[in-house]
């Protein structure tokens, strides 16, 4: 077991990808504190996973809105009772408003940013404060498809998830000297509650093409969330030490071939586009 006895926090861990992440960390022997906003979902997931625990292994669920500073402080205070914090997975997030961008309400837009971006920052702040004294730690931020492709009619989600990637890259550079590795994960197209939200919104709001994709995923299946969960586990282990500031596709990038991945990761291929001198068009010589 790669993470035996280590202590992990997973936000948004009661269903969908988050639940798979919690289960994957438990399988590797970690103690897990997971949170979500819905207490009923938390209780159900706790009851489902509890029987599989090994002697002495801890699984703790806690209601938490990651956009609320007091809730996040309470989450980390509870996790501290288990011992030193080794890794955090920032999975909590929402789609936010669905529909043409000129019709979006500012309140719905703001809520998406508060949860997806401010919530990620709050969790990262507490994690960094816990990890810096030990000069080690892993932070994994789930970016979602909004960071990898334009998403018409999902402007709040797409923009906020792209912001999460740049936040990830920035924090990675800021805390590189503290040996805290911070990366983002694009899990791929998953069949989750987000899929149901798109189907409920209908093609008029979500757009015919994206609606059809989600309908297909709901009926025929989508990417396996266990692969994204396995990537989160790998990024939390010593095997990935030194890899930081990257946006990694769980489905398409060769992260499960460490030597190949490290060679590729030396450049900027796994980052948002950067303008370097080699990319600039040089003025023509008179």
How does this structure look, described?
- The chain has 286 residues and is an alpha/beta fold.
- It is 45% helix and 13% strand.
- It has helices at residues 16-27, 39-49, 69-80, 106-131, 155-174, 193-206, 208-220, 225-236, 258-265, and strands at 7-11, 31-36, 59-63, 87-90, 137-142, 180-186, 247-249.
- It has a seven-stranded parallel β-sheet with strand order 3-2-1-4-5-6-7, with helices on both faces.
- Helix 1 (16-27) packs across helix 8 (225-236), helix 4 runs parallel beside helix 5 and helix 6 runs antiparallel to helix 7.
- It is globular, with a radius of gyration of 19 Å.
- The termini are far apart.
- The mean pLDDT is 93.
Oligomer: single chain
Largest sheet: 7 strands, parallel
The secondary-structure element order is EHEHEHEHEHEHHHEH
Strand order of the largest sheet: 3-2-1-4-5-6-7
Count of runs of 4 or more consecutive helical residues: 9
- Through-space gap between termini: 65 Å
Helix content: 40-55%
Question: Which helices and strands, and how do they pair?
Answer:
Blueprint: E1 7-11, H1 16-27, E2 31-36, H2 39-49, E3 59-63, H3 69-80, E4 87-90, H4 106-131, E5 137-142, H5 155-174, E6 180-186, H6 193-206, H7 208-220, H8 225-236, E7 247-249, H9 258-265
Parallel strand pairs: 1-2, 1-4, 2-3, 4-5, 5-6, 6-7
Helix pairs in contact: 1-8, 3-4, 4-5, 6-7
Key traits:
alpha/beta, 286 residues
Short description:
The protein is of the alpha/beta class and 286 residues long.
């Amino acid at each position: 077991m790669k993470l035996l006895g280590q202590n992990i926090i997973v936000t948004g861990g009661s269903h969908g990808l988050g639940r798979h992440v919690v289960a994957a960390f438990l399988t590797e022997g970690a103690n897990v504190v997971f949170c979500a906003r819905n207490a009923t979902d938390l209780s159900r997931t706790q009851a489902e996973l509890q029987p599989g625990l090994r002697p002495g292994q801890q699984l703790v669920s806690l209601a938490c809105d990651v956009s609320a500073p007091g809730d996040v402080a309470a989450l980390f205070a509870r996790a501290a009772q288990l011992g030193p914090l080794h890794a955090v997975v920032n999975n909590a997030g929402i789609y936010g408003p669905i529909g043409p961008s000129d019709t979006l309400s500012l309140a719905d837009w703001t809520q998406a940013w508060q949860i997806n971006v401010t919530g990620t920052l709050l969790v990262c702040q507490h994690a960094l404060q816990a990890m810096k004294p030990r000069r080690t730690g892993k932070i994994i931020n789930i970016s979602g498809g909004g960071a990898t492709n334009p998403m018409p009619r999902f402007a709040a989600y797409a923009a906020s998830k792209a912001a999460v990637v740049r936040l990830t890259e920035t924090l990675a550079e800021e805390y590189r000297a503290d040996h805290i590795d911070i990366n983002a994960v694009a899990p791929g197209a998953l069949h989750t509650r987000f899929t149901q939200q798109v189907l409920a919104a209908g093609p008029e709001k979500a757009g015919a093409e994206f609606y059809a994709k989600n309908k297909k995923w709901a009926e025929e299946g989508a990417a396996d969330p266990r692969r994204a969960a396995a990537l989160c586990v790998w990024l939390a282990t010593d095997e990935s030490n030194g890899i930081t500031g990257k946006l990694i596709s769980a489905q398409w990038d060769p992260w499960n071939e460490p030597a190949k991945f490290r060679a590729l990761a030396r450049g900027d291929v796994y980052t948002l586009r950067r303008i370097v001198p080699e990319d600039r068009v040089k003025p023509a010589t008179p």
